[in-house]
Write a structure and sequence with these properties.
This protein is an alpha+beta fold. It is built from 20 helices and 62 strands. 17% of the residues lie in helices and 32% in strands. Helix 9 packs parallel to helix 10 and helix 13 runs parallel beside helix 15.
Length: 1068
C-alpha cells in the first residue's frame, strides 16, 4: 500500500493477532525471475500469482493488481524494488503446481507479519471453485515447522472489485476473520533475504483477453459519443452506452442508433441510452438498435416532434421521466411492441400507437459447415398471429439437404446437412397470418457453403464393387502329417504343405488369381527386447513374440484371418533376436522353429506366406557404418560394413536352407523399409540401435549420399536374389519380394532404383516389388485423426498409376503394408475399400498392416462390423460379423456405441494422486525436458528401466485403506493403474502434463484399456483425442469396470511423447 493509506489502516492493523504460522509444496511452473519492477511474466496474457506480504513495521508488497502496485517492494523501510529478485508465475487454466518467491528482502527489523500469502489477478467473480492446497512456506531456504501441506484460505484483496488472495495470515475484507487459520506452524525468525511458497492450485478459470478500449473510456463515432461499460474480449463484444448526441444530430429529422459500433479494433454492442442524450432533439423518427435495453432519465425528454420510435430489442428498463414532454402521438414498432410500449407510456409519453410490423429473426449456424456434418437454422416470427406453413428447399440437394424440420408456435427450425463440398442457396417460404388476421408470405434465402469434410457415414454395400478371386482348392495343401518342428514350441504339429512348386506360374498370375487380399502379423515375430543384455539372455522365442504387447500367435487366429478371405499373410521377423554372439550370426533353432510353426499355421490353410527380415534392431545401419575421429569427422567403417554383408548372407542362407523344401506358397522378402535412407541409421558399437553395455556410449550415423544409398539398396537386393537361388531346391523357383527404396512409391519409381536380375529361366516372372502406403498420413498414421477426402482418393490413383511401370516390365507389385492405423475414425472403411479397389485396377496386392487394431486376436474375430463386411463382400467369405460396432462409432442395431465420457473434476473428490514425471516414450527412447524445446533435445535411454523414464514418483490417497497403485512399462510406453474398486463406485481418471509438453502435438490421443499385469497388452481399449480429454476427467464406463474385475490394471498410454506429471483418480 502507499504511504497515504498508512494512517487509515494503522488502526485496523493494530488489532491483528501476531502471526506465527505458514505452509506449501510443488515446483515453479511458468515462472519468471527478475527485478520486481520489470518482471516479464506480467507481459504474458493470462492470470498470474505472486508472493505478497506486510510486516508489523509496514514493509510490504501489496496484494493488488491496480496499476503497477504489485511491482513495488519495500524492506527495512526502503524501496528495494530494483534490487529484489522475484519469481512470479503465469497460471495455466485448470490445475497446476507452482512456486512463488521473493529474494533480497531483509525483514528482520519486524517480529511478525500482518499479512502474507499468495495474491493473484483473478477476479473474485471468476473464482468460485479455486483452491490452493499443499502449500509449503520456506524462510531463507528452510521449511517452516508445521507449515507444509496445508490449504490456504481464499480471501480477497481490499480494492473495490476484489481479486483472489490466498493467505497464511491476513484480513478478509480488512476485517479480522475467524476463517483464517492463524496458527498453521511456527515462525521463529523473520527472513534475512528469501521468502518462498510452493503450492498446488486447482480450478483456475480460463483467461479471456480484452481488446480495444478499457471500461470507462469514451469515444465518438457518427452522431454519438459512447462510454465503454464492458470491455470487449476475444470471445464476446464489449458494451457501450450513448452519453451524448452531437449538435448535428440534435437537428437531424431521422436518427438511428446502430446495433454495434467499432473502436480501436474491437466491436461493442450499444446497450443503453444515458440521461439527456436525445433531450429536446428535433428528430421525428428514431430507431434503436436491438442491443439497446436501457433508457435513462430524460433521455428523450421534450422531443416534441418525435412521432415514430422503432425499438429493435426488448427494453429491460426505461426511467420514469425518459419521455416526459413528448407531446405528439408516438408510433411504437419493432420488437416486443406490447412490452416496450407499456414501458415508454409509463415513462412520460403523452400518447402512443402500437404498430405491428412482421419480423422474421433468422439465426444460421452454418459457418464452417463441412460435408458429413449438420448446421442449423431457426426462424422466429414476431408481430404475427400465426405461422401456418414453411416450405424449405435447397437449390442443389447433392450439396445441401434440409432435414428434421419442425414448427413450434412462431418458430421454425431445421438442420442444414452438408452432403458434399460446394455452395447452394436455401430458400424458406413462410406463410403466416398477420395480427389483423390477413394472410401473407415471406421468403428468406441464404447462400450456404459446404467445405470438404471427408468421407463419412457407413460404407454402403452397393459401393463395394471389388471382387477378388480365391482358389477353390489350394495347390499346396496335401496329405496331412504330424511332424516335429526342430526347435518348435510344441512337440509335434500337423503339416499339410506338399512342397509343390509350379515353374511356369508367374507372380503376376498369383496376385490376380490366388493370393486374394493380404494381412500382416505385425508387432509380433519382429518385436525386439529393450536392451542388448535382454536379447542375449532370452532363451524362448515367445518372449520376443510378446515383447510389444501382442498375444502368442495361435493356429486358430490364423484360421480366423483366412475366414475373412485373407489368402496372403506377411510375417515380419527379426532374425537377430536369438542369433549367436560368436560372429557367425547363427540363428537359434528355437527362433527358426517358432517362425516355421507360424508359417505352417498359414500354409495349412492354403494361404500364401511372406517372410522377411524386418527392422531387426536396425542392424541395417551397418551398411553405411562410419567411425569418427577426435574432431567428429566421419569416414567409412569398412570393417562394420563388411560385417553387414556377412550377416545378411548368413541370415538368408540359413532361412533358405530351412525352408527350401516348402511349396511356392512361401515367399521371401529381402527387407522391410530399411533399403534407403535408413542405411545411414545411427548404430552403436554393438551393431544395433541399442548399446552392448554401459561402455558402448555413442551411436554414429552413416555418411552414404543419396546416390550411394540407391546403389547400396540395389546391391543388397541383387545379393538377396543370388543367395536364394544358390541354395537350390524349391528356392530356385521361389517367388521373391524385392523391397523398394524406403518402400516409398515416388522413390521406388525413381530411375536410380533398379530391380535385381534373376536367372535367365525365371526372367522377371518370379520377382515382385514392395511398396507401402499410408496416405494421407494425418489420417492413416499412428494416432491419426484427420479426414479422408475425394482429393485423397484421386491422389491414390495418381500414386498407383506410377507403379504401372513395374507391371508392364513383367514384375508383380505387392503393397506390403497399407492401413489406417487408428481405425476409430470416419471414412476408414471407405479408405480401405477405395485403396483396395484402385490397387486391384493397377494389379497391386494390398497387405493390411494389422497389430491387433482391426482383429481381436484373443477372440479370433474382427473388432468392427463394417470392416468384417467389407472383406467378406470383396472375397466372398463368411468371417464372423458379430461385432456391433463400426469404425465410425455407429452400431449395427442403432444403439449408442460404447464410449468414454469426460467430466469437469473441479467439484469431485480426489482419492489416489500420483505426482512425478513420466517421460512417455515416443519411440526414440528419449528423456528430459529439452525434448520439448529443441529438435536434438533429450537423453537417450539405452537400458530399459522404470527409473529412467519415471525419474520422479510419489503417490498418496485421501481415502482410508485405498490400495490403488501405479506401475510403468520398463521402456516408458505405458502406465498400469490398479484401482481399488472397493473404494470407488464410479472412478474418474485425470492427467496433468509438464506445461511445455502440454500440446496436442506432444500428447496426441490417449488410449485407455485393461491389462492382466504391469507390462501386459492392452485390451478393451478406447481412444480419446487431446481436445476431448484435456483438462477433464475420463469416466470409466461399465465395460471397463467389468473387465477390471478379471484384468485388474487400467492400461494407459499416449500416441505422443508427453511428460506426465500427475495421474489422479476421483470419485465420480
Amino acid at each position: 500500500m502507499r504511504k497515504t493509506t498508512k494512517k487509515l489502516l494503522a488502526a485496523v492493523l493494530s488489532m491483528a493477532m501476531v502471526v506465527t504460522s505458514f505452509t506449501g509444496i510443488g515446483a515453479a511452473n511458468d515462472a519468471k525471475t527478475a527485478s520486481a519492477a520489470v518482471s516479464s511474466v506480467w507481459k504474458e496474457d493470462g492470470y498470474h500469482a505472486y508472493l505478497y506480504y506486510q510486516t508489523k513495521t509496514w514493509d510490504y508488497r501489496d496484494p493488488l493488481k491496480t496499476g503497477k502496485e504489485y511491482s513495488y517492494v519495500q524492506a527495512g523501510g526502503q524501496d528495494v524494488t530494483e534490487k529484489a529478485e522475484i519469481t512470479d508465475v503465469l497460471l495455466k487454466e485448470g490445475d497446476g503446481e507452482y512456486t512463488v518467491k521473493i529474494s533480497g528482502v531483509d525483514l528482520t527489523g519486524a517480529d511478525a507479519f500482518n499479512m502474507m500469502g499468495i495474491s493473484t489477478d483473478i477476479p473474485l467473480k471468476s473464482a468460485d471453485s479455486i483452491k490452493v492446497t499443499d502449500a509449503t512456506l520456506k524462510i531463507d531456504g528452510n521449511e517452516v515447522e508445521g507449515a507444509a501441506g496445508v490449504e490456504l484460505p481464499h480471501t480477497k484483496s481490499y480494492e473495490a472489485n476484489g481479486y483472489s488472495v490466498f493467505s497464511y495470515t491476513g484480513y478478509d475484507g480488512w476485517n479480522l476473520s475467524s476463517t483464517i487459520p492463524f496458527k498453521q506452524g511456527k515462525l521463529t525468525t523473520m527472513p534475512k533475504s528469501d521468502i518462498e511458497i510452493s503450492f498446488k492450485i486447482t480450478g483456475v478459470p480460463k483467461f479471456t483477453k480484452t481488446y480495444g478500449k478499457k471500461a470507462g473510456a469514451t469515444f465518438t463515432s457518427g452522431n454519438y459519443t459512447y462510454k465503454v461499460t464492458t470491455a470487449a474480449t476475444e470471445d464476446t463484444n464489449g458494451k457501450v452506452a450513448i452519453t451524448k448526441l452531437s449538435t448535428k444530430g440534435k437537428k437531424a429529422k431521422t436518427l438511428s442508433v446502430p446495433n454495434t459500433v467499432k473502436a480501436s479494433g474491437a466491436t461493442y454492442t450499444v446497450s443503453a441510452v444515458n440521461a439527456n442524450v436525445f433531450k429536446a432533439a428535433k428528430a421525428t423518427s428514431v430507431t434503436l438498435g436491438k442491443g439497446v435495453t436501457k433508457i435513462a432519465s430524460s433521455a428523450f425528454a421534450n422531443c416534441k416532434k418525435l412521432t415514430k420510435l422503432v425499438v429493435n430489442g426488448k427494453l429491460s428498463s426505461v426511467a420514469k421521466n425518459a419521455f416526459k414532454g413528448c407531446t405528439k402521438k408516438i408510433s411504437i414498432s419493432g420488437s416486443s411492441v406490447d412490452a416496450n410500449a407499456k414501458k415508454i407510456k409509463a415513462a412520460g409519453a403523452k400518447s402512443i400507437k402500437k404498430v405491428y410490423t412482421p419480423i422474421f429473426a433468422t439465426k444460421y449456424a452454418t459457418s464452417g459447415l463441412v460435408s458429413g456434418k449438420a448446421g442449423t437454422v431457426a426462424i422466429t416470427a414476431e408481430n404475427v398471429k400465426s405461422v401456418t406453413k414453411v416450405t424449405a428447399s435447397s437449390a442443389d440437394e447433392k450439396i445441401i439437404k434440409i432435414k428434421n424440420e419442425k414448427t413450434s408456435g412462431l418458430t421454425y427450425s431445421a438442420e442444414i446437412f452438408g452432403v458434399a463440398a460446394g455452395s447452394a442457396k436455401d430458400t424458406f417460404k413462410i406463410a403466416y397470418k398477420r395480427i389483423d388476421g390477413k394472410t401473407a408470405t415471406k421468403t428468406i434465402t441464404k447462400d450456404v457453403t459446404v467445405a470438404d469434410g471427408g468421407f463419412y457415414g457407413q460404407l454402403e454395400d452397393k459401393d463395394i464393387t471389388l471382387r477378388v478371386k480365391l482358389p477353390e482348392t489350394s495347390t499346396n495343401v496335401g496329405e496331412e502329417r504330424t511332424v516335429s518342428i526342430k526347435g518348435g514350441t510344441s512337440a509335434n504339429m500337423t503339416v499339410k504343405d506338399n512342397g509343390t512348386v509350379r515353374k511356369d506360374v508367374s507372380t503376376q498370375w498369383l496376385i490376380e488369381n490366388e493370393m486374394g487380399e493380404g494381412v500382416n502379423l505385425g508387432n509380433t515375430l519382429e518385436a525386439t527386447l529393450g536392451t542388448y543384455a535382454d536379447k542375449v539372455a532370452a532363451t524362448d522365442a515367445t518372449v520376443f513374440e510378446q515383447a510389444w504387447g501382442q498375444p502368442i500367435t495361435t493356429e486358430a487366429y490364423i484360421q480366423s484371418l483366412r475366414s475373412y478371405g485373407f489368402n496372403t499373410i506377411r510375417i515380419p521377423v527379426a532374425w537377430s533376436n536369438m542369433d549367436s554372439e560368436d560372429g557367425t550370426y547363427t540363428i537359434n533353432e528355437k527362433y527358426l522353429g517358432r517362425v516355421e510353426e507360424v508359417v505352417n499355421y498359414a500354409l495349412n490353410c492354403g494361404m500364401y506366406v511372406i517372410v522377411n527380415d524386418h527392422w531387426d534392431s536396425q542392424w541395417w545401419g551397418q551398411f553405411g557404418a562410419c567411425k569418427e575421429d577426435a574432431d567428429g569427422k566421419k569416414t567409412a567403417d569398412e570393417t562394420k560394413r563388411a560385417e553387414a554383408w556377412k550377416r545378411y548372407s548368413r541370415y538368408w542362407t540359413q532361412i533358405c536352407d530351412r525352408f527350401k523344401d516348402y511349396s511356392d506358397h512361401l515367399i521371401f522378402e529381402g527387407a522391410n523399409e530399411e533399403l534407403g535412407d535408413r542405411l545411414n541409421d545411427a548404430i552403436y558399437e554393438s551393431g544395433y540401435c541399442v548399446p552392448k553395455d554401459d561402455n558402448d556410449t555413442k551411436a554414429i550415423s552413416g555418411n552414404l549420399t543419396e546416390d550411394e544409398r540407391y546403389e547400396m539398396a540395389n546391391k543388397i537386393n541383387q545379393k538377396f536374389v543370388d543367395i536364394v537361388r544358390s541354395t537350390g531346391g524349391n528356392n530356385a523357383y521361389r517367388h521373391l519380394l524385392i523391397a523398394g527404396y524406403d518402400t516409398n512409391i515416388d522413390k521406388t519409381c525413381d530411375d536410380k532404383f533398379k530391380m535385381p536380375t534373376d536367372t535367365a529361366e525365371n526372367g522377371t516372372t518370379k520377382l515382385s516389388v514392395s511398396v507401402h502406403y499410408y496416405t494421407p498420413w494425418d489420417f492413416c498414421g499412428d494416432g491419426g485423426s484427420g479426414i479422408y477426402t475425394q482429393k485423397d482418393k484421386e491422389a491414390t490413383e495418381t500414386y498407383f498409376t506410377k507403379m504401372d511401370k513395374f507391371y508392364n516390365a513383367g514384375y508383380g507389385i505387392i503393397m506390403g503394408e497399407f492401413s489406417v492405423c487408428n481405425p476409430k475414425q470416419e471414412g476408414v472403411a471407405q479408405w480401405l475399400n477405395d485403396t483396395m479397389t484402385i490397387a486391384a485396377k493397377h494389379h497391386i496386392l494390398p497387405v493390411l498392416w494389422e497389430t491387433n487394431q482391426y482383429m481381436d486376436k484373443d477372440n479370433c474375430k474382427m473388432r468392427y462390423n463394417d470392416i468384417a463386411v467389407l472383406y467378406n463382400t470383396i472375397t466372398g467369405s463368411t468371417g464372423d460379423t458379430s461385432s456391433k460396432i463400426n469404425t465410425n462409432g455407429t452400431t449395427t442395431d442403432g444403439s449408442i456405441a460404447d464410449y468414454l465420457e469426460t467430466t469437469n473434476v473441479n467439484n469431485l473428490k480426489a482419492g489416489f494422486e500420483w505426482t512425478g514425471k513420466w517421460y512417455k516414450n515416443g519411440g526414440g527412447n528419449l528423456v528430459g525436458d529439452d525434448i520439448y524445446t529443441t529438435e536434438e533435445g533429450g537423453t537417450k535411454v539405452t537400458k530399459g528401466s522404470v527409473e529412467a523414464f519415471v525419474p520422479e514418483s510419489s503417490s498418496k490417497s485421501s481415502i482410508d485403506g485405498d490400495t490403488t497403485e501405479l506401475g510403468f512399462n520398463d521402456w516408458g510406453y505405458q502406465a498400469f493403474l490398479k484401482i481399488d474398486l472397493s473404494k470407488y463406485k464410479k472412478p474418474v481418471v485425470a492427467f496433468n502434463f509438464l506445461d511445455i509438453s502440454d500440446t496436442e502435438d506432444f500428447v496426441e490421443t490417449v488410449t485407455i484399456g485393461t491389462s492382466d499385469k504391469v507390462g501386459g497388452s492392452g485390451k478393451n481399449t478406447y481412444d480419446l483425442k487431446y481436445s476431448e480429454f484435456h483438462g477433464k476427467g475420463i469416466v470409466l464406463n461399465d465395460t471397463l469396470l467389468k473387465a477390471l474385475e478379471t484384468e485388474p490394471y487400467l492400461y494407459i498410454t499416449f500416441a505422443g511423447k508427453p511428460a506426465v506429471t500427475g495421474i489422479t483418480v476421483y470419485e465420480g
